[in-house]
Every structure is written in C-alpha cells, then in structure tokens.
C-alpha cells in the first residue's frame, strides 16, 4: 500500500512539473517558440512537452498536460492577445483546448499500443515526436476550418478558394520544421529523463 501511495505521489509530482513547464512556455515566448532571423514565422515547440509527457508518464497524463496548454492558450486569447487571430479565432475552446487534448490521446494510443511492440524506444520516441507535431498542426488547422472558418477568412482577407493554399503554406512553413524538431527533441529528452531517474531505456 505504501509503495502504491509513493508511486502515485511521484506521478502527481511529475505531472505537476510538466504542467508548470507548459504554463511557463505558454506565457514566456522564448521558452515555447524559436524565432529564426529572416524567417517569417516562429517555430513552436510547446507540443514537444506534451508529447514527452505522454510517452514518459502515459496517455492520461499527456491529455492533462495538453489540456493545461489549451486552457492557457484560451486565457491568453482573452487577456493578452497579440493579433486579431487570438481575439477572433483562438478565443474558442474548440480551437485551443480540443486539439491539444486529442493530440496526446492519439499519440499515446499509437505509441503505447502499437509502436512499443514493434520498434525500439528511441525510434518510438522519434516517430511519436513527428506524429504528435503533425497531429498538432492538422488538428488545430482543422478546428479553425470547422469552428472559426469565417473569422479566419476575414482576418486573412481570403476566400474559400484560397483557404487551402493558405493552410498548405502554414503546414510547409511551420509544420515541417516543427515535425523535424519534435522528432529530434522527443527521444533526446526522454533518454535524458530516463537516465536521470535510473530507468531502462
């Protein structure tokens, strides 16, 4: 019973640490984004924290951490918007919270139920990092199309005819670099975490 309680306490502490990291990354720009000189868009890596939490602590923990990220994004849209996109698009929980909880749910299932049985730990982490990053991009953009399409088109001064080319551009400019970054960072961070805690890799 004592061992069970200790494990539960340890898990709670770990989840709390990941939640704290997410909150810091959400509110301190340089902790969650990389700004590249002469590059038009910032590269986000907050989702890597959610992916690592999912792989290290389990799917349930990943969904919780993803939810915290989504809630912070929603709060920022109301109290500290940095563009019309935040005010009119990211003010919906269906755009900010739902995708951030669905991503770790899907990644956790694929990683723990499928990849863990067929590939090594490092390969699993790399694939899950790439997959999680792709899902984050696709789910957020998909949610915008479904729930905030008119507002998005108005802000972009675009039409339905040009919507898909705009979204494709975002996937290429942001999505691909973020996928590469997540595929590299996820296994590196997980190996470091397991090493610090003396766990098998």
From TrEMBL:
The transmembrane residues are 12-32, 38-57, 85-111, 123-146, 166-193
Q: Sorted alphabetically, which InterPro entries does this protein's record hold? A: ECF_trnsprt_substrate-spec
Name of this chain's protein: ECF transporter S component
Q: What's the source species for this entry?
A: Fundicoccus ignavus
Q: Which UniProt keywords apply?
A: Membrane, Transmembrane, Transmembrane helix
Give yes or no: UniProt keyword Glycoprotein: no
Query: Is Transcription among this UniProt entry's keywords?
Result: no
Pfam families noted in UniProt: ECF_trnsprt
Q: Which Gene3D superfamilies match?
A: 1.10.1760.20
As one GO molecular function, the record gives: transmembrane transporter activity
């Amino acid at each position: 019973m004592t061992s069970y309680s200790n494990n539960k306490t340890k898990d709670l502490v770990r989840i709390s640490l990941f939640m704290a990291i997410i909150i810091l990354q959400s509110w301190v720009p340089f902790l969650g984004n990389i700004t590249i000189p002469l590059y038009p868009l910032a590269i986000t890596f907050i989702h890597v924290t959610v992916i690592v939490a999912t792989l290290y602590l389990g799917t349930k923990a990943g969904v919780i951490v993803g939810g915290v990220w989504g809630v912070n994004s929603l709060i920022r849209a109301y109290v500290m918007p940095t563009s019309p996109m935040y005010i009119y698009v990211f003010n919906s929980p269906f755009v900010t919270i739902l995708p951030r909880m669905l991503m770790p749910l899907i990644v956790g299932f694929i990683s723990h139920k499928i990849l863990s049985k067929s590939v090594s730990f490092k390969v699993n982490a790399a694939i899950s990092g790439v997959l999680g990053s792709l899902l984050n991009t696709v789910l957020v953009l998909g949610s915008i199309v479904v729930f905030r399409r008119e507002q998005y088109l108005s802000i972009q001064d675009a039409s339905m005819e040009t919507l898909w080319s705009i979204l494709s551009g975002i996937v290429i400019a942001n999505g691909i670099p973020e996928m590469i970054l997540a595929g590299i960072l996820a296994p590196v961070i997980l190996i470091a975490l397991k090493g610090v805690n003396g766990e098998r890799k």
